Every structure is written in structure tokens, then in C-alpha cells.
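Operator note (shift B, R.M.): manual run for Regulatory protein zeste requested after the automated queue skipped it. Running by hand, logging everything below so the morning shift can see what happened. Input copied straight from the record, untouched. If output looks odd, do not overwrite the archive copy; leave it for review.
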Amino acid sequence: MKKRVGYISNEQKNTLMELMDKYPNLINGRFSSTFTKKDGQNQWHEIASILNAIPGAKKDWIHWRKRWGKKSDYKSHNKESNGDIIISRKSQHSSRRPPTP
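Run finished. Output pasted below as returned.
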């Protein structure tokens, strides 16, 4: 059985979104010769220490990374803040009728 690590506070949620704006390589999750897995882990360690200093949940870097991965609203917030337009596949194909004039 998994041990509960607690609920995150609104301050932690907001801080996580702000921190992810500072770490764009973590958002897309792709590694390269200039951004390695070890670099990503080090950045998550930094994020975890900042978030754990805020009142709320206390998690290790892996649980903070999982929390980020589960919340698509965080990801869409970051993509919108970077100027991208987000259109889901469902919304693109939700209506087969031609638009009304």
C-alpha cells in the first residue's frame, strides 16, 4: 500500500507553475546532448526543495514530477503562457456539420 504524501497547497500549485516556466526543458520532457536525464533530475531536485519549503505537502522529486505529469491543466497553462494555441483533437473533430452562416 502506498504512503500518502499529503495534499498540495494553492501556493505550491502556483509556485510549481511558475517554476516550470523557468525550466522549459522539463515541460516537453525530451532529452538531448545538451539536456540529459541527469540535468532533468537535478532540476526536479531543485524544484522539490523549493516546493517543500512552502507549507503544504512534502514530496520527493519523483512525486513532484508525477504531480506535474498528472495535471494537464498545468501543462496547458504553460503552453498558453508561451504563446502557443492549444486545440485538442476532440474539439477539432467534435462537429461534422458545416458552420452555419
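Quick read of the result: The helical segments are 10-22, 24-28, 37-52, 61-70, 72-81, 89-92. The chain has one domain: 10-83.
Leaving this for review. - R.M.
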